[in-house]
Design goal:
38% of the residues lie in helices and 38% in strands. It has two helices and four strands; from the N terminus they run E-H-E-H-E-E. It has a four-stranded mixed sheet with strand order 1-2-4-3. Strand 3 and strand 4 form a beta hairpin. The longest helix is centred in the middle third of the chain and has 18 residues. The mean pLDDT is 95.
Length: 88
């Protein structure tokens, strides 16, 4: 897992995560989000939608590429979902 990935939990604020996504995309043209669990995935997807709205007026369109990844949480291996956000 990329150490620079934006980590989202079920308690993450949508607007804050969306701002982080938009900022990273503006700077690097790509952002990575890491989630574990359905609640975290829900918040991440909503944040991607909001970030798309933040970036659209600037002429930046984004897409999401999902994949599975392995993450170690407190020494325990877990299956995470990796969401790569790229400009189109």
């Amino acid at each position: 897992m990329d150490e620079n990935a934006i980590k989202v939990s079920a308690r993450s604020g949508v607007a804050g995560v969306a701002g982080a996504i938009a900022g990273v995309v503006r700077e690097k043209k790509e952002a990575e989000i890491q989630v574990i669990g359905a609640g975290a995935l829900n918040q991440a997807v909503k944040a991607i939608i909001v970030a798309r709205g933040f970036l659209a007026p600037e002429g930046i369109d984004i897409c999401c590429i999902p994949s599975f990844a392995e993450a170690s949480i407190s020494g325990e291996d877990r299956t995470a979902i990796r969401l790569v956000i790229r400009t189109r």
